């Protein structure tokens, strides 16, 4: 703040009979001087103001810069020693004595920002008295000029003298604040006795005793009416400044004041109006919000809209619309709001979808009817939008379930007339709202419930003409005599508490026929100026079609449940969140529980613990892809026994591709599992029985081969070699069947150890070179990598992959084996130049007992690749294949490295 900018302060300083200089505490620049100080300094004011203190008062001069620094540091007024000054006035040399006073000036944070230097001329000596007398006339003239200036200032100013605070001066503006009061020459508390003991009296004493200035804003001053003596509520903003005498003592107080009562009253009235408007908006059955400016700041919102947004008022008011609801950034609402402010058009939208993202990540789909009405500011320019909306989600969903009623649902909350934000001040505007609103609105007066006003919509609902206005409700609607509505209204009038009801049924006479009509209704009490209930506002919405539609949906659901109880499968239904909403009779009988127990905790507890995690992963994938999740799972029955089931969890999507519900079908396959177990047991038994004679045959053939090798009969030797190969092939097949049996019985074991991959490949290459002499086997293994795995099982996988590569490629062709590091994994690659695999067969290569049906006569049972995949999966790895017809195939598998 630059003190030189204050007009009032300029007037006071320039009118002061003492020399005043104001110096900036940071840079020691002279900011303000008066004429008196210029005379004492011997230079005009414009040659002093704006100059550095060092330039005007060199070190060791009459005024010392060090004293200013001490005043800033100590924050205390300092009275310096008397000094002699030689003045030149009108070419005359005059000697005078002055006592400098250094006064700190504080900002609002109690920091010294400036220092005022007062040059107080001391009384002249006896020898100087005569010359001083000549100057008295000049001083008197200056005093008169000062008083004239004070009288012109449009702020109340008074000067109180002495410790009794006697009115020494008061300008006309001050006198107008207390008309009919005599001030001049009277003590402050005699002129204004009602202020005895007030905070103002305490403040005056503090200023006089401590020599400090005090400021007060919007302060209540307890004035009284002179004639009646009644207290008046009057508010003032004022400042009290001490006046110092020649010795630096406080001898009076300056009062600068202005009355702000009307300002505060206007603010109070505005707050009351705003409160009334909030009450009316909250009474409306619609969601209402006012949005301002291009930033879309929420200025006002009613409780209905807060409930729809699921927000609190503190989270909403004063914040940008898209910061409150970032989910709506990709939806059209922000653009429409700005368009209304730019063009002034009214936007009226029906059944608009609004999507919200819930805290758990699910999408909440709602539907609203809404109207955007432009608002203008005080300057007449469009700067806001009044949004009035009605959530109709239930109605839209009911219509979707019953398409034949698509155009019959009533739009309950549509096109409420937009009123000015000062609607509460105008009874005519309120009546206009009631008349034009598309919802049924009426006002009932007094305990007799006289129909004071009723809009066309409520007359239409009641089935009555406009002539019923002025009658009591009982006279206008005699058919409600034995219905509960008059009782509800009586409770509202007696207790003052509003009545709310949804889908309440009434029997009303329409054209000599009683009709069953359903309403959403609000009975809102309205108090008079004394706080007594005077009227009841009736707001009703006809939801008959909505109720009838819902009843048809409920009837359809009952039919679905009946059918679900008849089918042999276990049928369930759940919300998108997973909350179970229906379990058929088969489920409840199987679990031995009722529906509530099953819904709350039973369903999860029935699942086998080993399958819960995999089931949840499958559901997540189904929710993302929209494809049903099919799995074999065990559920515990009422006897505590786990039974195998085929479980199908199907996501049901709406037209936007969003999950609306889950449907589950669970079929008992325990008998199938038992049959499969018996098959596996049989395979295991037969495989063991076959291995014994094959071992003997293999031994005899080896003995015969050794004898044949000692002869020259090449045919015999070749026959024995081929026979041994067939025995080995049969032994491999039997071992494969045994491995499948163990795998399906969960008896196959993985025994891991850490080993060097290159050593394993060198070992198996010796066998491959002897075993597959018809092909060229190439190993590319230059790097040293270690893994922690079942060594024998990995060799079994390699044997299957290399054996397949040899089996499905021509003699003399190359089979290449290699491995490489991919991130933290080892990738093993087996590549051949064989016949290749068709694309439709690749995805089924690793299924149990699957054999590729191509132009091949190669024998096999389709278990080698299945076992290889299961071994790799048991290690936490992955396996896959790539192929092209006529160009060969490449098989890959990856395992974790030991790092």
Automatic annotation (TrEMBL):
All copies of domain Histidine kinase, residue ranges: 685-899
Coiled coil stretches, renumbered: 395-422
Pfam family, one: PAS_4
Domain PAC, chain residue ranges per copy: 350-404, 629-681
Family annotation (InterPro entries): HATPase_C_sf, HATPase_dom, His_kinase_dom, HisK_dim/P_dom, HisK_dim/P_sf, PAS, PAS-assoc_C, PAS-like_dom_sf
UniProt-listed Enzyme Commission number(s): 2.7.13.3
Keyword line: Coiled coil, Kinase, Phosphoprotein, Transferase
Catalytic activity annotation: ATP + protein L-histidine = ADP + protein N-phospho-L-histidine
NCBIfam families named in the record: sensory_box
Stated name of the protein: histidine kinase
Organism annotation: Chryseobacterium edaphi
Organism phylogeny: Bacteria, Pseudomonadati, Bacteroidota, Flavobacteriia, Flavobacteriales
């Amino acid at each position: 703040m630059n003190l030189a900018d204050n007009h009032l302060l300029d007037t006071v300083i320039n009118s002061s009979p003492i020399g005043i200089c104001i110096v900036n505490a940071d840079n020691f620049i002279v900011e303000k001087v008066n004429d008196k100080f210029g005379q004492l300094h011997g230079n005009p004011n414009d040659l002093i103001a704006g100059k550095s203190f060092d330039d005007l008062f060199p070190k060791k001069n009459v005024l010392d810069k060090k004293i200013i620094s001490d005043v800033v540091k100590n924050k205390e007024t300092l009275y310096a020693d008397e000094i002699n000054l030689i003045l030149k006035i009108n070419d005359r040399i005059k000697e005078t004595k002055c006592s400098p006073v250094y006064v700190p000036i504080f900002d609002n944070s109690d920091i010294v920002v400036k220092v005022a230097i007062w040059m107080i001329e001391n009384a002249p000596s006896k020898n100087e008295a005569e010359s001083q007398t000549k100057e008295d006339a000049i001083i008197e003239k200056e005093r008169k000029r000062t008083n004239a200036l004070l009288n012109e200032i449009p702020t109340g100013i008074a000067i109180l003298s002495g410790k009794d605070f006697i009115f020494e001066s008061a300008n006309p503006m001050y006198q107008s604040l207390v008309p009919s009061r005599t001030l001049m020459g009277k003590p402050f508390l005699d002129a204004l006795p009602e202020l005895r003991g007030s905070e103002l009296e305490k403040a005056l004493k503090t200023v006089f005793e401590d020599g400090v200035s005090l400021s007060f804003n919007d302060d209540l001053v307890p004035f009284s009416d002179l004639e009646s003596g009644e207290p008046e509520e009057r508010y003032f903003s004022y400042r009290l400044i001490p006046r110092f005498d020649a010795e630096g003592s406080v001898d009076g107080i300056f009062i600068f004041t202005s009355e702000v009562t009307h300002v505060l009253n206007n603010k109070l009235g505005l707050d009351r109006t705003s409160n009334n408007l909030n009450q009316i908006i909250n009474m409306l059955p619609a969601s209402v919000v006012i949005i301002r400016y291009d930033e879309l700041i929420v200025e006002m919102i009613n409780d209905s809209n807060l409930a729809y947004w699921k927000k609190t008022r503190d989270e909403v008011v004063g914040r940008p619309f898209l910061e409150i609801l970032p989910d709506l950034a990709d939806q059209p609402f922000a653009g429409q709001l700005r368009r209304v402010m730019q063009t002034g058009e009214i936007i009226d939208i029906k059944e608009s979808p609004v999507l919200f993202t819930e805290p758990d990540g699910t999408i909440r789909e709602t539907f609203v009817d809404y109207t955007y009405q432009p608002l203008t500011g005080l300057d007449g320019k469009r700067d806001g939008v009044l949004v009035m909306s009605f959530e109709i989600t239930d109605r839209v969903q009911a219509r979707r379930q019953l398409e034949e009623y698509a155009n019959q649902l009533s739009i309950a909350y549509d096109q409420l007339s937009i009123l000015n934000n000062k609607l509460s001040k105008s009874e005519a505007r309120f009546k206009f709202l009631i008349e034009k609103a598309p919802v049924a609105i009426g006002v009932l007066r007094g305990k007799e419930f006289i129909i004071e006003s009723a809009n066309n919509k409520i007359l239409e609902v009641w089935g009555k003409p406009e002539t019923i206005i002025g009658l009591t409700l009982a006279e206008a609607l005699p058919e409600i005599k034995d219905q509960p509505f008059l009782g509800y209204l009586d409770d509202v009038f007696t207790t003052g508490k509003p009545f709310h009801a949804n889908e309440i049924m009434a029997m009303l006479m329409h054209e000599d026929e009683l009709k069953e009509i359903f309403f959403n209704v609000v009975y809102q009490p309205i108090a008079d100026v004394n706080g007594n209930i005077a009227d009841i506002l009736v707001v009703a919405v006809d939801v008959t079609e909505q109720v009838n539609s819902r009843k048809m949906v409920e009837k359809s659901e009952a039919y679905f449940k009946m059918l679900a109880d008849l089918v042999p499968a276990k049928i369930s239904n759940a919300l998108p969140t997973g909350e179970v909403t229906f379990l058929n009779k088969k489920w409840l009988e199987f679990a031995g529980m009722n529906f509530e127990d099953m819904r709350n905790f039973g369903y999860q507890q029935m699942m086998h613990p080993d399958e819960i995690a995999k089931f949840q992963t499958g559901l997540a994938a189904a929710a993302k892809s929209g494809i049903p999740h099919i799995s074999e799972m065990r559920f515990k029955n009422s006897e505590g026994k786990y039974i195998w089931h085929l479980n199908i969890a199907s996501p049901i999507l709406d037209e936007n591709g969003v999950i609306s519900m889950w449907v589950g079908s669970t079929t008992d396959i325990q008998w199938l599992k038992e049959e499969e177990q018996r098959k596996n047991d049989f395979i295991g038994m037969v495989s063991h029985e076959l291995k014994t004679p094959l071992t003997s045959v293999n031994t005899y053939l080896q003995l015969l081969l050794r004898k044949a090798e000692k002869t020259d009969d090449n045919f015999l030797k070749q026959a024995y070699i081929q026979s041994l190969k067939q025995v080995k092939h049969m032994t491999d097949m039997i071992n494969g069947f045994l491995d499948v049996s163990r795998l399906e019985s969960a008896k196959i074991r993985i025994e891991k150890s850490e080993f060097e991959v290159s050593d394993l490949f060198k070992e198996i290459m010796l066998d491959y070179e002897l075993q597959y002499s018809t092909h060229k086997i190439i190993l590319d293994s230059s790097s040293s990598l270690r893994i922690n795995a079942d060594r024998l099982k990995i060799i079994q996988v390699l044997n299957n992959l290399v054996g397949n590569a040899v089996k499905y490629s021509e003699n003399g062709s190359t089979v290449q084996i290699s491995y490489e590091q991919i991130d933290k994994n080892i990738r093993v690659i087996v590549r051949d130049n064989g016949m290749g695999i068709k694309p439709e067969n690749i995805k089924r290569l690793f299924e149990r007992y699957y054999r590729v049906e191509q132009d091949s006569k190669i024998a096999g049972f389709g278990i080698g690749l299945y076992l290889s995949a299961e071994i790799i999966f048991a290690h936490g790895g992955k396996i896959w294949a790539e192929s092209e017809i006529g160009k060969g195939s490449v098989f890959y598998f990856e395992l974790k490295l030991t790092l």
